[in-house]
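Thread: quick sanity check before group meeting

JM: Hey all, I'm pulling together slides for Thursday and realized we never actually wrote out the predicted structure for the chain we discussed last week. Dropping the sequence here so it's in one place. If anyone has concerns about the input, flag it before I start.
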Amino acid sequence: MRVRQLWFPALTASVFFLTSCGSGSANSAVKEDSTKNAKSNQVQSAAVGSDRKPLDTAEYQRLMTYLANGDTTGRWPVKSAPLPLPGAILPFHRIVAYYGNLQSKKMGALGKWSKDTMIRNLLSEVKKWSDADSTIKSIPALHYIAVTAQGAPGKDNKWRMRLSQRWIDTTIAWAKEINALVFIDVQIGLSDLKSEIPLFEKYLSMPNVHLGIDPEFAMNGKGGKRPGTVIGTLDASEINWVGDYLTGLVKKNNLPPKIFMIHRFTKGMVTNAKDIKLHPELQVVIDMDGWGPPDLKKGSYRYWINEQPVQFTGFKLFYVNDTEKSGQKEMMSREQVLSLKPKPIYIQYQ
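JM (edit): ok, ran it. Output follows.
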């Protein structure tokens, strides 16, 4: 049974950042040492994405079946997905990412703490995920929101802010210290993907930099309403433009496959999901990023991720919204997340 949709946006008026930043309530669907950890993760992630040996197809298929987690519907693993190019990260590693913005402590784990504390906490989470699932080793990632939806229109009336790219440079430098991946995340407001994504071509042409987009704050399909008043939407046709663009960059620069992550926690956030195109140059992750108590998060994952398969899946955990705002003592455990069908291969902390 599906429950009515609820959502709780939150604006920080002083700087107009939409501090929910992909943190829509899951009610909207149905609804130890830091040095030791750093050394461990450096060893296991140093070659990630750089090994261009021929793809081990038997291992790939074995891990894809493992991720299906006993699914009996025939949806998982996705049969229409092409084999990836050599150097593919998924499903050979599980990505554990800290999401946020270096200029805001309220937008997520990436900016919540000082650099050293953030890295220590991230590497601790990576180790815990590797311990929880010894079949797929976990690797760290920094997921930086480079274009943020806004609570004010701005000079061009696009209701989004393009942040200085020097913060991307900083994120990449920090990631290099721990051999982490980097994701650039874009919230378009009343702009469009074709105007925003190419701004980051020099970064997306790097082998360790990947992309995330957030339909929650894509407002053109909502009659131009202000971000934060309704949940936004993107259609498969818009998503496919980005996929084609990234595929072109991989071919042009002779790169390993790009990871393309798409946030989702309601039906309407991604329309015509079955029409999302897959490429050997691309690995598409649909990330369930709703917050709330476990049953609602599981419901969102079931209806909008499991039952509408694309390729790979992700799951977001919230240090604050899943606990304080949801009346829970703790976030969902790693064991609970790994029991989902399919097992998420991308874990994001906000």
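AS: nice. The longest strand covers residues 137-149. Residues 1-22, 27-47 have pLDDT under 50 and may be disordered.
JM: adding both to the slides.
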